[in-house]
Amino acid sequence: MSTHADRLAALRDELARRRLDGFVVPLTDEHMSEYVGAYAQRLAWLTGFQGSAGSAVVLPAEAAIFTDGRYTLQVREQVDGANWSYQSVPQTSAAQWLAEHAPQGARIGYDPWLHTKSWVQQATAALKAKGAMLVAVETNPVDAVWHDRPLPSDARLVVQPTELAGRSSAEKRAEIADWLTAKGADAAVLSALDSIAWTFNVRGADVDRTPVALAYALVGADGTADLFVAPDKLTDDVRQHLGNAVRLHPRDAFADHLGGLAGKTIVVDPDRAVAAIFGTLEGAGARVLPLRDPAILPKAIKNAAEQAGHRAAQARDGAALSRFLHWLSIEAPKGGVTELSAQDRLLAFREETGRLRDLSFDTISGAGPNGAVVHYRVSEESNRPLELNSLYLVDSGGQYQDGTTDVTRTVAIGTPSPEMRDRFTRVLKGHIALASAVFPAGTRGGQLDTLARRYLWAAGLDYAHGTGHGVGAFLAVHEGPQRIAPVGGAFVGGDEPLQAGMILSNEPGYYKTGEYGIRIENLVLVEPRDVPGAEKALLGFETLTFAPIDRTLIDLALVTPAERAWVDGYHARVAEVVGPQLEDEAAAWLKSATAPL
Length: 597
Description:
35% of the residues lie in helices and 20% in strands. By secondary structure, the chain is an alpha+beta fold. The strands form 8 sheets. A 6-stranded mixed β-sheet has the order 4-3-2-1-5-6. Strands 12-11-10-8-13-14 form a 6-stranded mixed β-sheet, with helices on both faces. Helix 4 packs parallel to helix 5 and helix 14 (304-331) crosses helix 15 (339-351).
């Protein structure tokens, strides 16, 4: 099965053998992860799609792949339209499409370990009108035809030191225990991998770009816990760190353990736990409370140690990025620099810090028209040179033990056009408006999102992604529940009240299909803001990311004195934080790159 068409045909044969008329293939794992291990890359194996969000439906005579606005171009480049129809979310969904396309009376299979309970309910309701039914499979049919499917990672867990975590695992479990007691619950299921890593102060290497380990956990109202993880992943150091209050079990014992909780009241997160967990508990006679994972909010609100670690990581990463931008300023105009070579050089600068554990996501290295592909991933086939009088967009980040970084810079190679400068300046004005915002405590990200879009909207322009996502502390680069995004539609999640200690990205952009892309991204920390005479508690943002913004792309006729002052102030801070870390030539370049406008 060397081609994706062969794989699709093999899956259809397997479905027919199982008397199924269709199957739904999501891009996730048993933990509802955004980024998944190689063993769980079923959607990519079947279709060729390399994005980080999507799903597919296979029927006997047709198949569809579902992606949102971030992947409109990418999905068409990577997935063969002769075999798959392209469907846009939120205009439609897998459930809605099935209701229209599934044969009358069809049996549509799904893996209950890869979908939420709410999705199952929605799909069941959608299919009912067709007299069709959703059928839970005991084993995934994609796995049955994926003969060289990788095994799950066997990487060992490592301890995240308390001095970096800021609080011990025992303290975190005690806080969860108090919350469970207040809810009248006996225990909470933790199935999100970053929640488990945070709660137990451990990290892993089972998922590329995210330092987590494949595991499940139950945290009890008495502060003890059950951790389900492959025994050979546990070192003596980790066992000692976890202590006697954490009972250890093999990961594959999790479902059987749930089956023994009859009569218990168990909290399960309906957005982060799969349907199989609910079904197993309910089938065993447990009472299930569908509440948010109790680690989610405290994980999002960074304590003083995590904030300090982030600042150190951002300063280190900013120096690596500045060295790269200096290198790019010399080499790119000569010709010969490509997306791949630039990406590799940036990685090398990060590795030279001696502290890089991994990238925080696959670097987006987009030259010219490839920069307009929001989540572009360069390959040997797509690799473009950085050409004169074009734009280059690089979105990248690192995983360091003290923090996770994510930063985007757009650079003019040669002389930018007036239109490029206009669009860049409008994106910058939106970035500044959000970075400078002062807002009442309790404000939601969705209320702030329009600040970043205002100047694009004034010119009839926009961008098809959220403006900001949460970021973890040596954890997931995309972390909830905080977001700065429109409420509703494809970017649901902008309705979480922002709280001091949350870290988010600030990344408005503009993308002209077939020509160029622009994005300016810094990470920001929500912090209390004192305003004389204020009659309510206020919040604002501390900018954490430090790397120069390309001054040649700023149209000074479009910026106000206050915006000019913001850029000058930001660049002065970049020079202060990054300058002492750079060598002679790079330091001189930085001084010029951060000079007042």
